[in-house]
Structures are given as structure tokens and as C-alpha cells.
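Lab channel / #folding
Pinned by the channel admin:
"Please post every new chain as: sequence first, then the C-alpha cells as a reply. Keep commentary short and put observations after the output so the thread stays searchable."

First post following the new format, from NK:
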Amino acid sequence: MTAHNQFSLFAQRRFGPLFATQALGAFNDNAFKQALVILITFVLAQSQGLNSGVWINLAAGLFILPFFLFSALAGQIADRFDKAALARRIKLIEIGIMGLAAIGFMLESPVFLLGVLFLMGTQSTFFGPIKYGILPQHLDGGELVAGNALIESGTLIAILLGTLFGGLLITTSAGPLVVSGSVIGLAVFGWLASRGIPAAPAPAPDLVINRNIFTATADMIQSAAKDRNLFLCILGLSWFWLIGAVFLTQLPAFTKDYLGADETVSNLFIAVFTIGVAVGALLNNRLLAGEIAARYVPLAGLGISIFGIDFALTAGFEPADTAAGLTGIGVFLSKAGNWRVIFDLFALSVCGGLFSVPLYALIQHLSDPQEVSRNIAANNVVNAAFMASSALVAAILLGQGWSIPAILLSVAVTNFFVSLYICKLLPRDVLKIIARFFFRLVYRVEVQGWENYEAAGDKAVIVANHTSFLDGPLLAAFLPDTPSFAINTQQAERPFVKPFLSLLNLLPIDPRNPMAMKTLVREVQEGRKCMIFPEGRITVTGALMKVYDGPATVANLAEAPLLPIRISGAEFSTFSRLKGIVRLRWFPKITITILEPESVEAPEGVRGSALRARLSSQLYDIMSAMMFETSNEKQTLFSALLDARTINGGKTPVLEDIKFEPMNFDRLVTGSFVLGKKLAQQTPGQEKVALLLPNAAAAVAAFFGLHAYGRVPAMLNFSAGPKNMLAACTAAQIQTVVTSRAFIEAGNLEDDIAALSEKVTVIYLEDLRDQIGSGAKLAGLLKSKFARIAYSQTAKGAKSSDPAVVLFTSGSEGVPKGVVLSHDNINANRHQISARIDFSPNDTVFNALPIFHAFGLTGGLILPLMAGVKIFLYPSPLHYKVVPELIYDTNATVMFGTDTFLAGYARSANPYDFYSMRYVVAGAEKVK
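Reply from TO:
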């Protein structure tokens, strides 16, 4: 699913005003509350002889008590009336409450201030179901996690700022006046912001409100409890707020009594805690990619326990010696051991953010649209019950002599067992997290195209290429939901598969049973996604193999789309079946690409085997297009050559010519750097350099040598005659032609070269070879070892959109015309062919088509070379008797040719000459 850009929601009216309204309200709540806590702890405790621990816990209890008492009424009202209108009225009331707060600060009356705190809690009680209930009305499903994350993090940042504001200013000389004026002013701004919230029509306008808060609360909780998953989310959130309430409530006294630090350190801890939860909240949208799921909740809970236990133990259980006074923030931070306390608190709070946001989104998602606010209110009631009980129990334990670290430790240990229970409730989610972590760590897995998965809808048939034994676990780990995996019953009986039957939702299918298809169709029709590998087996060629019609038939009968997924990289792992074909690696990078959903069409009147054949053909087209669309076109040919060397191994033989001296990838790359540098020295400032060479390994080295140093090869047609070759050089503004004396002599081209020499500079490979010394060869070898770094320097700024080669027409219809092909052009052509033809390094391509021809260059050279396929280059396609003999001698399996040449070989060959041939690819002219 799409990882929605959550921050873009700020600019939208359906979210921005609501965010501002709740953020300002949260700031006010906590500015007042923290000012009250600091006032009691550091001022009134001394001036009026108050027990700060008891009064602080009493304040915490009074603030959350309204959530317990009035949430049922608040939830009913939020479902009964327009939420935007309610928000405006509640924010208007907040202005009056803040006025009372100002009076309380001036009087320094703890009783009066606690009364105001109760009113603030009441106001928050009525606003809570509105702000969380309005989100599903204004946001799409894929935005719900993002919206909740922003609301949660915004609330926490507002809490932080409000807490710092109230805590730092209240003890100054003009503190009460500044705090009072500020909270009143911000309440006014909050009311103004609420006026921008778009209308949110009542989902249940006919609801009869039960004014009996006790029966209404009981009925509301019972209604929420009918949905077990919903109520488990409520319990999980309530437990989180219990932990948060205990830690936040005890932090000021903990800081003073056990760390010997003053209120600045207490405020630092509050800041660390709130920032941590905000960070964790925002991480959810990235981790879940917009999916509404509790996948990370179990591990986040365990993280809370681990860091909570260490936090409590680090401080110790003995009160600090404060005879010399309390430590300030500067001295506190100067001690290395205190950074561990800060880290524990931050990590604990990040886990808290990861824990809470998905549960809020799930409550909204699982609720009936007419009951969202009431379920939010039910959550608030249970939250309040948990927090009130935590405050009560903490006060009792403190009165019984428990230390604050002991209370924090007991909460963290209890949470550990709660988290284990959550793991038991969500075994698939826990397994997914572990699997994702493992695969990302080991294989650097990257997933692209989440938006296409979301676009497929609830029911779809997922089809993927089958590259290795890792494919199933990879898709099970990274696909957002839990699709059914069709698996052969024989495979399902294997011992290593059975433990995963329930965890991964495997669907054993007997292909011999005619009812198997109906099982899959029913699975999809019921609104689920089903994963099927169309090839029916793991590839043994590295390319797409035979495609069965089953997935397309299921999609057709279930009226569901096909969702193509390309897995690339896993075929190079040790879990593939390509041993001995490509160079396998322990930890190759794996990419999963989700493409756009596709539909299959059943023609009218076509039935039975004819229909299956049509569907199979459509599916094969979809899979072939998938292979092409996910190929890497955006690279230069030299970069592609380096990739091919990495994939297949530098020692893999890839070129051979009539000298019968095989050249491997390492020699080709080294030769390209050595020859390329010499050619670059001979052609300063020249963009295009012509090659007048036959099909030979040296020609390929020269071709890539020019690429290695940022030159563009122009392939001259040596059969066109001197006039046309000169015209081609003029058209392409060529100043230098690279050729070979041996080739000129063998082809009787002395007159042609003489004519060319009058207009352009002619360079002979034999002369360059004599000029290349040991130092140049050593430099080329060194560049080959660090080829990517060297290439980035020798061909600076090379892009895939740059020209890669200049080809020329024959000139039979006038002056030859130049055709400039980019790297993108050639890469696209080779990927299109390889999407249809299953090349593998076990093949040998025989290419007699000249590489000055587009067909010979792209199909006969670039395509097999980049696939790691060995190529035998022959200089002339006209030797009708020699070519079949060499095909027989080289055991060639693939051949490119024109209709004319192929017909000539067929007339001259012994039938057995082609015994090893798998593919004969005809092109460049009409097949007769």
C-alpha cells in the first residue's frame, strides 16, 4: 500500500484546521497541568507544607476522572450531532475554563486549581471522540494511519511545548501572570481554528441519548466488547496509557528524589518522552506503508519493557543525597551514566508511539461508521479506568513505602508478560516483522509499487515469476495483508512446510483434482487475494518459463484482476536452481516490484480448451510485459556490461571469434579500459569515432573502449563502398576511423581506405597494440578491478539518455543516413527480446550478422553479452557452407540472421549441423 506523504495533509482543509485545534488544546491542557504540578512540587509543598507525591497523584486522578464519568455521554453526542459544530462549541467553553485557571494561579489555591483541572479534563473528554471520530469521515483508508500519526505526534509536540512552557515559567516572578494570559489567548486561537473544520454530518442523527452516565457507559462498553478484535485494541491502548500515566506522573518526583536533579531535568525528561512518542507515531506510516495493521505492536510492547526495566534499574532504589542541593541540567548531562537514563526513556517512548497509533487506526477502521465516536468514547472510558487505577495504586504503594523505581520496574515487568500475550494473539504479524527484518538485513530487500497493491482492491489473483525457494517467504513477509498461497499438496506434505501452513495461510491444492480450481475461485470471490506462481516451478533458465493458464482462469471466473509482481535478485541466491548457470551469491540484493493490476478478457462464445489457451496467452503477455517493464533501462551500455560481469562472474567466457581464443568478462573490461584510453588520446575533443571492423573480439573491445571514455562509436558499413562511407563520415562529423590492417587486407579494402584517408584520420589497431606498454596494461587491469569508480571518472556525466551508437543505412537509395541510438533505445530493445526468449549462460549465440547492422549489434551482440551468454562472432554471413560447420563445431544454441542468409545456410548444411540449435531468430527483412 502507498506510504502516504503524511505531511501533505497539513495543507488540506479536511485535516489542517482539526490538527491546529487539537494541538492548541493539548498545549493549553498541559501548560496548565504542568504548571500546577511544578507549582505544587517546588513551591506549594514548601510554602503550604503539602505532600507533593500525594497531591500530584490526586491531580492526575482528577484530570482523568471526567474521561471515566462522561465519555459515554460524549460519544453519544459526537455520533448524534455534526462533529465540526460540536468542536467549535467545546472550544468556546475552553476559553472560560482558561479564565478560571488564571484566577486559580493568582490565588495559589491548590483546591481551586484542582477544580479547574477537573473542568479541563471534562472539556477534553468531550473533544476526544470528536477529533478521533472525525478522521474516518474526512480521510481515506490509506490516510488513516498517517492522520492518526500526525494527530498523535502533534498532540505530543503540543504536550511537550505546553509542558515546557508551563513548567519553566510558573516558578518565575511573573510566571502565573504570563501562563494565565497565554492559556487564555491560545484558547481563543483554538476556537478560531475550529471554525475552519469542514462539516462532518452526524452518522447517527436519530440516536436517542442515554443521559444516565452509568448505564450508558456500561452499554457502550458492552457494545464495543462484542467485537473481540476491536475490544482487544481498546485494552491495548488502555494498557499503553496506564504505562504512560505511571511514568509521566512519577517523573518529577523521581527526578528530584532519586536522581537529585531539579525541575530543568524533569522538564528534559518530559521533552525526551514526548518527542520519543511523536517519533514513534510518525514512524508508523513509513513502516506500515498506509496499511491499517497491528504488526509492530507486539515487538513495540517488548521494547517498552526492555527499556523500562533498564530505566528503573539504572537509577537505583535508594534516594539521592540532596544535602548539597539539586543538580541542574548542565551538571546532570556532564555525567556519562545519566545519558543511559535519557536513552532508555527515549527508546521506551519511541516504542510507545509504535504501539499506540496503529491501535487508534484499527479502532476507527473496525468500527461501524455510525458508532466510531462511541467506540472512541468506550476506549476513553477504559483508558480512564486504567489510568485512574494506576494513579490510585501508585498512591497506595507510595503510602506503603514503595520507592518510585520499584513501581516503574513492576510496571515494566508486567508489561513484558502483556506483550508476550499480544505476540500470542498476533503470531503472523510477529513472524512477518521478524522475517522482514531478516530479509532486509541479509538481502537488502526493496519493495516498489505499493500503490498498485492498494489499487488491486480486496480480491485479486497475484502472479509472480518463480526464481527461488525464497519467493514464497519473501511475498508472505512483505505483502501488506495475508494472501492465500496456492501450493501443491505434495509440497505441503513436506516436513519443512507443515509448520507454516497456519502461519502463512498456505492453501494446499491437488492439481489432479478438478475441484481445486473451484476452491481457488471461491477463495478470491470471498474477497481475498490469492497468490499463484504461473510457471508452476522454479526457473532453471533465469528467465520466464512456461506459463500455465490456471491463474488467468481463476481471475476470469472470480471476476478479479491479476496483480503481477516481479521478484528480481533472488535467482542469484543459493536458494535458486541456477547453480552452474550463473554465479550464485549468498546475499544478493532482492527487489520486489508490484505492477499495475491487469484484467483478462474471455471472448464471447469461446469455451473449454480454446478459452484456456486464450487466457494462457493473455497471462503470458502480462508476465512478459512485467519482465520488460521492471528491467533496468536507465543505465549506459558500459554500466550494463559491468553488471553482467558481476552477475555472471569475471571468468565467464563471453566472446570468441575465428581465432578461437575465448575472451571472458574480465579480459573484455580490462581490454576496454586499455584500448579506450589509447583511443581517447588519439581523438581529443571528438565525440564520435568511427569503427570499420568485422565481427571479432577486438571490435567489441574497441566498441566498449570508446564507451569507457565517453566516445560514441559510429559503425561504418564496409560493404557500402568508399563514397558512401565518406558520406557517412561527413554526415556524422567524424574525424577519425579505427580499423585493422589484417581486416583491410583480408577484405581487399585498400582502395576504400585510401579514399577515406584523404578526408579523415585512419587509426590501425595493430599500431595501437604496439604502442601499449606494460604500464598501460597494468593501469587497465587496476581500472578493471575498480571498474565502476574508474568509469565514473573516465566517462564523467555519462547518462542513459546519451547517444550510444551511430548506425548508417546502406545508401542503396541515396546518401547513407545516420541513425543515433541512445543507451535507453538499445537497452529497451534487448529487454523486450529477453522478456520473450529464455536466454541463459548455458546458451551459445552464433552471430554472423555484421555489428554495423542494428539487428546484428543489438540481437547478436548486446543482448547475449548482457545476459552472460557466450557469443561466437563470425566476420561474414555470406559463407553459406562455413557457417553451418562452425555452428556444429561451437554447439551453438541460438542464431540470428536474415531470411536470405538463413535460407542459404539451410541449402548448404547437413541437417545435423543444427542439432544443438534452440532458437533461430529471423529479422531485418521479410520472412518468405
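NK: The chain has three domains: 6-196+226-425, 433-629, 638-922.
TO: also worth noting, The domain at 433-629 is CATH 3.40.1130.10 (Glycerol-3-phosphate (1)-acyltransferase).
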